[in-house]
Design brief:
The protein is α/β, with parallel strands linked by helices. It has one domain: Rossmann fold. It has helices spanning 19-27, 62-73, 94-105; strands at residues 3-8, 40-46, 78-81, 109-112. A 4-stranded parallel sheet has the order 2-1-3-4, covered by helices on one side. β3 (78-81), α3 (94-105) and β4 form a beta-alpha-beta unit.
Length: 117
C-alpha cells in the first residue's frame, strides 16, 4: 500500500473543487495511471498563498512546515502537484517551486501533474 498526496494552489480554491484531480486519482488515469488500486490518497494540501497575501516565504511559514512534517509522519511517498501551480505564460509559481523543493528535501517524490488540462 502506497500513500500519496496532492498539492494545489491556495487561491485556486476560489474556482476549483478538485474534481479533476480527484477523478483522475479514483479512475487511475493520467498522472495516476501507475498506481495500484490499494494506493491511498492520504493528503490534500495547499500552498501558503501569494506573497501579497502572505509575506512569509514557504521555508519560514509555520503552516507549510507543519504540513510537510505531517506528510513525513504519515509516510506519504509521492506528492502530485496540480496544474494550478502554473501562472502567467505557463510558468510555475515560484512559491510552488520552493514548496516542491522542500517536499523533495524530505525524501518525498514530487510529480508535477494530476490530470490533463
Amino acid at each position: 500500500m502506497e500513500k500519496i498526496g496532492i498539492l494545489t494552489c491556495l487561491h485556486s480554491n476560489d474556482v476549483c473543487a478538485r474534481v479533476g484531480c480527484l477523478s483522475s486519482f479514483w479512475r487511475r488515469k493520467d498522472f495516476f495511471a501507475k498506481y495500484a488500486e490499494n494506493t491511498i490518497l492520504a493528503a490534500m494540501l495547499t500552498c501558503n498563498g501569494c506573497k501579497g497575501d502572505n509575506p512569509s516565504e514557504p521555508e519560514e511559514d509555520k503552516g507549510i512546515l507543519e504540513k510537510l512534517d505531517r506528510l513525513v509522519s504519515e509516510e506519504v511517498k509521492t506528492v502530485h502537484v496540480g496544474v494550478c501551480r502554473l501562472i502567467e505564460d505557463k510558468k510555475e509559481c515560484p512559491r510552488m517551486t520552493k514548496i516542491c523543493e522542500m517536499i523533495e528535501s524530505r525524501g518525498i517524490q514530487v510529480i508535477r501533474g494530476t490530470h490533463r488540462e
